[in-house]
Amino acid sequence: MPATPAWPPKSLPRLFVRTPLGEGARVELDGGQANYLGNVLRLKTGAELLLFDGQSGEWLARVADAGRKRMTLAVERRTRAPETIPDVWLAFAPIKRAQTDWLVEKATELGAARLLPVMTRRTIAERVRLDRLEAIAIEAAEQCGRTLLPGIAEPVTLDRFLAGRDAERILYFADEGGGEPARVAFKPGPALILIGPEGGFSEEERAAIRAAAKAVPISLGPRILRAETAALAALAAYMAVAGDWGLSADKAE
Ligand code: SAM
After folding, report:
1. Coil, helix or strand at residue 117
2. C-beta separation of 218 from 231 below 8 A
3. Does the CB atom of residue 220 touch ligand 1 within 6 A?
4. How many helices (H) and strands (E) does the chain have?
5. Using an 8 Å Cβ cutoff, are 206 and 250 in contact?
6. Tell me, what's the pLDDT at 5?
7. What separation in Å is there between the alpha carbon of 206 and the centre of ligand 1?
């Protein structure tokens, strides 16, 4: 269900829609979104809200017609251009469902450009529901003010992940066995952070990752972090050191 943004305070409801947006566009809503705006937020004809379509930035719209099960929105003007986000991808071995959901929500808030589930030898999750992860990412983007959604890739095995990756993108491999401190290792530029499963990578997998082109083993400190903690700690460290944490929320574009 779409979320009402908590930041900035007292902001308008914010909704992702699949209709391409532009000045004068009309957006027809039914199902969950119409119910949420009409029955949960109780928006009436004339009420304002913000929309984004994942491509064209953010737009101010107004409720043109509020029916019982349908709603028509009229798009008025653009309020923000599409933001540029750091080109950092997060690859992770799916864990239990609740923790994976949490990881996807928080990684979206932190600004990951792409999320890549990677199946490793010790991955316990057998199935990844991409539609569920996409819905979680949309809700997080609505809440945190993103205008671009993170791409979510189909799950692949570690072998295929290593064979298919772009060798120009630095592979920051979170290695609990030791590596360069993350704050020293992270550099601006296309980045791919790889986090292992709850049981860690096998020795064979660690060797294969370390041997991959542009692989940089990194340490996230002296404590063994849970997989989801490691993923978000690494992403936060990247954003602070090489990402966009130099910008404040009201300046982000
Ligand atoms: N079972 C492993 C062990 O006891 O050594 C721990 C795996 S840890 C729960 C899951 C993943 O988080 C690891 O594969 C690694 O990618 C990452 N991780 C956790 N703590 C880390 C640290 N201090 N430095 C680097 N990576 C870490």
Report:
1. strand
2. no
3. yes
4. 7, 13
5. no
6. 54
7. 12
Cα gap 14→243, rounded to integer Å: 25
Kindly report the pTM of this predicted structure: 0.92
End-to-end Cα separation, the chain, in angstroms: 25
| pLDDT of 29 above 60 | yes
Å from CA of 75 to ligand 1 middle: 47
Contact 59, 50 (CB under 8 A): yes
Is the distance from the beta carbon of residue 97 to the nearest atom of ligand 1 less than 6 Å? no
Tens of pLDDT, residues 216-246: 999 999 999 999 999 999 999 999 999 999 8
124 lines ligand 1 (CB under 6 A): no
Portion of the chain with pLDDT greater than 70, in percent: 94
Query: What pLDDT, in 10s, does the model give residues 72-124?
Result: 999 999 999 999 999 999 999 999 999 999 999 999 999 999 999 999 999 98
Residue 12 Cβ contacting ligand 1 at under 6 Å? no
The pLDDT of residue 11 is 80
For the cut 60, the answer to whether the pLDDT of residue 22 exceeds it is yes
Pocket lining: 225 vs ligand 1, CB cutoff 6 Å? yes
CA angle 144, 5, 61 (to 5 degrees): 105
DSSP code at position 105: H
Q: Encoding tokens for residue 15?
A: 């909704």
Count other C-beta atoms under 10 Å from residue 116's C-beta: 20
User: From the CB of 4, is ligand 1 less than 6 Å away?
Assistant: no
Beta strand pairing status for 180-181 and 215-219?
parallel
